[in-house]
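Notes from the 1:1 (GR / supervisor)

We went over the backlog. Supervisor wanted to see one worked example end to end before approving the batch request, so GR pasted a single chain during the call. The sequence is below; no edits were made to it. Supervisor asked that the structure be written out right there so they could see what the output format looks like.
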Amino acid sequence: MAGYTIRAFAPGDAEAIAALTLAAIRQTALRAYSAEQVAAWSARYSPARLGESAARGDVILVAVDALDQPAAYTVLEADGHLDMLFCHPDHTGHGLGLRLLSAAEVSARSLGAERLYTEASELARPVFARAGYALLHRRDFTIPFEGGAVAIHNYAMEKRLG
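Structure output shown during the call:
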């Protein structure tokens, strides 16, 4: 984990975060999802979503490498919802997800949140579990894609902060 720092999002991070998100979806997600699911998921991603989160005042935490380049990030909404947790494929396996979840928990407590909750992908689920999140249920849904709908799933998880 040496060489990485967790810091607040800066507007100059937006382009790198968009790139790392798409890399994570298009490369890492293939370990648990089909090529069609990954294509639908990546087509659904919008870089504008991060800007909307920043404008709302969401807590965006970024793990940066020694050159201050974003390697991973998470978005914490005021009600305790963790909207995103993505790590660039070149930086997986360094504990960045756990470090970001720990930092998000500190932020959530300072906001007075009583629980954290998320919809974790198949690959993120074990990271959330290691951070103390309980599995609530599997969520099966479809993503509109190329005139049809692609079935995909994730997991509703939560962590009580009491």
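Supervisor's comment: The radius of gyration is 15 Å.
Batch request approved.
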